[in-house]
């Protein structure tokens, strides 16, 4: 079972405690929505899980192991942190080809993931010509390249049009149905309500709720619960 477990994770920057003794589990086979107001530590937590930020204390384990100790990380975890970082003069196909080579992934997988994210017909255009939504799709294609057991996505809905949002929802549900672990941060609560099985709500770097979406404490919508659980914490 390749779940993601944050264990008393704390990350302090010079003047800020971004994440404060945070513990939660994103279970395998489920879509976990990771929610919190601006500046509540979501991105920092995800970056720590991926070994991009060093924890001050505590840890995040993926299938019981630190990211840094995974021998073929691209085969275990696929991540989309932000839809940037692509070489603008390179095509999507070339970009994925470079990643495939670096990650020890068979080249044939490039065409497969381009198909999955519905970018095949634009695959040879330069990324500088891509819209934000197309960049998000390319980010997802990079994440899916190694056919990972775990997907970590930071705000993947940004820039997608309504058809793209519906498409992403189906894709994430299908990934979870195949037993994968999907951890996705988002501010779009109505979308999360339709996609997630499990939610983790943070504010000020601390856990406010973790559990199945139908076990939220309040009777109202996810948004009502979110606002009640995070009151006064928006930055
Ligand atoms: N590299 C850094 N140096 C200093 N402070 C940082 C750094 N990265 C994040 N922070 C601070 O840590 C806190 C949490 O930021 P983080 O980006 O993790 O929040 P978030 O929940 O992802 O926010 P948003 O919803 O706005 O994306 C913020 O106060 C932020 O300013």
UniProtKB/TrEMBL annotation:
Organism domain of life: Bacteria
Leader sequence residues: none
Residues covered by the ABC transporter domain: 4-229
Protein family (similarity comment): Belongs to the ABC transporter superfamily.
Organism listed in the record: Catenulispora yoronensis
SMART domains for the chain: AAA
InterPro entries with a match to the protein in the record: AAA+_ATPase (IPR003593), ABC_transporter-like_ATP-bd (IPR003439), ABC_transporter-like_CS (IPR017871), P-loop_NTPase (IPR027417)
Lineage, uppermost ranks: Bacteria, Bacillati, Actinomycetota, Actinomycetes, Catenulisporales
Keywords, sorted A to Z: ATP-binding, Nucleotide-binding, Transport
Pfam families, per the entry: ABC_tran
Name of the featured protein: ABC transporter domain-containing protein
């Amino acid at each position: 079972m390749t779940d993601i477990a944050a264990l008393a994770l704390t990350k302090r920057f010079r003047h800020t405690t971004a994440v404060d003794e945070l513990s939660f589990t994103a279970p395998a086979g489920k879509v976990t929505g990771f929610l919190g107001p601006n500046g509540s530590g979501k991105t920092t937590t995800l970056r720590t899980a991926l070994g991009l930020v060093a924890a001050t204390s505590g840890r995040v384990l993926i299938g019981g192991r630190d990211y840094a100790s995974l021998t073929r990380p691209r085969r275990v975890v696929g991540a989309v942190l932000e839809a940037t970082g692509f070489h603008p003069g390179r095509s999507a196909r070339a970009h994925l080809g470079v990643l495939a080579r670096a990650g020890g992934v068979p080249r044939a997988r490039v065409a497969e993931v381009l198909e999955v994210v519905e970018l095949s017909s634009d695959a040879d255009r330069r990324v500088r010509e891509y819209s934000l939504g197309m960049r998000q799709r390319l980010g997802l294609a990079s994440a899916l390249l190694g056919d990972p057991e775990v997907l970590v996505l930071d705000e993947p809905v940004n820039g997608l049009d309504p058809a793209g949002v519906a498409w992403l929802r189906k894709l994430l549900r299908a990934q979870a149905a195949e037993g994968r672990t999907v951890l996705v941060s988002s501010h779009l609560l109505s979308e999360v309500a339709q996609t997630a099985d499990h939610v983790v709500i943070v504010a000020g770097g601390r856990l406010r709720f973790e559990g199945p979406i139908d076990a939220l404490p309040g009777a109202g919508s996810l948004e009502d619960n979110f606002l009640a659980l995070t009151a006064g914490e928006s930055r």
